[in-house]
Automatic annotation (TrEMBL):
Annotated localization: Cytoplasm
Organism in which the protein naturally occurs: Dysgonomonas termitidis
HAMAP family: GTPase_RsgA
Protein name: Small ribosomal subunit biogenesis GTPase RsgA
SUPFAM superfamilies per the UniProt record, alphabetical: Nucleic acid-binding proteins (SSF50249), P-loop containing nucleoside triphosphate hydrolases (SSF52540)
UniProt keyword list: Cytoplasm, GTP-binding, Hydrolase, Metal-binding, Nucleotide-binding, Ribosome biogenesis, RNA-binding, rRNA-binding, Zinc
Complexes and interactors: Monomer. Associates with 30S ribosomal subunit, binds 16S rRNA.
Residues that bind GTP: N148, K149, A150, D151, G200, S201, S202, G203, V204, G205, K206, S207, S208
Domain of life: Bacteria
Amino acid sequence: MINLNNYGWNDKLNQLKQESIHKVLSHGRVAVVHRTCYEIITESGLLQCELTGNMMYGKSDFELPSVGDWVVFQPFDESKGIIVDLLPRERMLYRKKSGAVAEKQAIASYVDKAFIVQSLDDNFNVRRAERFVVQILEADIKPVLVLNKADLGFDRQEIDKAIKHIARQMPVFITSVHHPKTIRQLQESISEGETVVFVGSSGVGKSSLVNALCGKPELLTSGISLSTGKGRHTSTRREMVLMDGSGVLIDTPGVREFGLAVDNPGSLAEMLEISDYAALCRFKDCAHIREPGCAVLEAVDNGILDYKVYESYLKLRREAWHFSVSEHEKRKRDKSFSKLVEEVKKLKSDF
């Protein structure tokens, strides 16, 4: 018998289940998502489940179960079942879907912490880390920066200088799977029942870190590419595993681009530590571009605020604003369409 409390089940989730019309059925957590089926962790073990027709065809891709979701299911034999309901989500990490204007792609739900993994080689990119931090904080998830492959050698002073504006908002760990002490320190930061998602580019060692934290090879990994000298991409799906006596880890495939799906562009100033300067601007609606009396521009001119951070802020704000406006228009269209459907239904009932 599996204790689902180890996977994050709690009294609040139990209350949510009691509000479901399917409350008498069993529940479990999505561990792996395949194209047409889901692997669910249940009290009796791992179950292969499919969706009901209503769920499969009546919901958008974003609304379908994702890794970390809690679902209610109807078993029909020892190893298979049908998902009939999805419990309300909390702390859902998502990004803007590639190629879409205002569509979100779910990464994982019920996440407590997100480990932003970068390797201490050419992959290190503070601008990319900023993107992850912004989206993670937007989802009310605690960000953690994990700088991996410390055995490769790096300039600690340069790294500290590059990340100082985001390091004040989150813990920073420098790790190597070849240095057990650094792995133990990372293990100690994960509490029992906590869910941690690993995000980052391909080849930074996310799967290797998960295996090291679990103390056994739970996930498939690849070695260093002989042609590039860099780590090779291994993960092709999001997958959840359990640490012995501790938390739940979710590995994710590497991403080349992490598009922002932020509904409140104004929050970026605080996330990138620009808000203190912005509060001193002459005009409350200052855009921090060319307005007179702009304290942000003054801080940049005086070298107090790093120009690259300021430039990144403007870029991310523009991207977040574009998504926010597009999302608003999309909701407006969906609302109008729903209203039209209701009117058609009413018209049919009158005949």
